[in-house]
Amino acid sequence: MNPSKFTPLEKKINIHFSTPEKLEHVFVHKSYLNEAHNGPRESNERLEFLGDAVLELVVTEFLFKNYPNDEGELTNWRSALVKGSHLAHIAKELNLGEYLFLSHGEEKSGGRTKNYILANTFEALLGAIYLDKGYEVAHKFINDFVLIYLENILEKGLHIDPKSKFQEMAQDKEGVTPVYRLVEEQGPDHEKEFTMGVYLGEALIATGKGSSKQTAEQSAALEGLKARGWHE
Questions:
Q1: Residues catalogued as catalytic
Q2: Strands (DSSP E) found in 85-192
Q3: Adjacent-strand bridge partners of 200
Q4: 103-107 long-range contacts, Cβ below 8 Å, gap at least 24?
């Protein structure tokens, strides 16, 4: 391992790892293990599991302490902050994709820019920060790189569930309840990508992609709102 490889990232997040191996572990995608005969034996999935829990706790605590809104609203705000597409956006801002260890196949398929891989890597980074530096440093990292987006999310209504909004608008404007149908399914069983279409009657309004049908439906609903001019 070349520890200096991660120096730009450590400077960007203002955290220097006491154990460089933990930082390297953040970027080991499971696809890499079959090709790294003398390399790491474990992927970043356990770190991702830990980071997800830390993120949920810190965001929940922040919202609870700072906003008197009801549980339903706070849940929507939290979901917008921790959802995969938002974490992937932050990961891209931090250039996490360039540090990934991927199989040749995953590399060729654009793994460094896939949202779900980047979101998982961001959570793994958070898990590693928690293990190496403790809760307070992890808390500050989340405050600096995740919670700063809350105001923008609320201003733009990004916390509103696209499926719910599209259904509400479709029923109000056109008297129709939207239906979602599978358009395409690609990839191996462990890394499926689904394309779902949202229909009003028999008319296809928009499509969306995601690593699950539910995520793809949300994406399709968001595109549907844009297509109909209902996203403002």
A1: 52, 123
A2: 179-186
A3: 203
A4: 103/29, 103/31, 103/32, 103/34, 103/35, 104/35, 105/31, 106/29, 106/31, 106/32
92 and 106 share one domain = yes
Per-residue pLDDT at 143: 97
CA distance 193 to 182: 11
What is the pLDDT at residue 165? 86
| HEC profile of 67-83 | CCCCHHHHHHHHHHHHC
State which amino acid sits at residue 206.
A
Which of 114, 141, 156 is a domain's end point?
Answer: 156
Output DSSP code: residue 110: T
Nearest to 115, CA basis, from 35, 212, 25, 49 = 212
Same-domain check for residues 147 and 49: yes
* Distance from C-alpha of 216 to C-alpha of 194, rounded to nearest angstrom: 6
Percentages helix, strand, coil for the chain (3-state, rounded to 5) are 65, 10, 25
Average pLDDT over residues 202-220: 92
Q: Is the pLDDT of residue 162 over 90?
A: no
Residue 38: burial class (beta carbons within 10 Å; 0-12, 13-18, 19+): exposed
Domain range holding 83?
A: 6-156
Q: 99 and 76 in one domain?
A: yes
CATH number of the domain that residue 189 is part of: 3.30.160.20
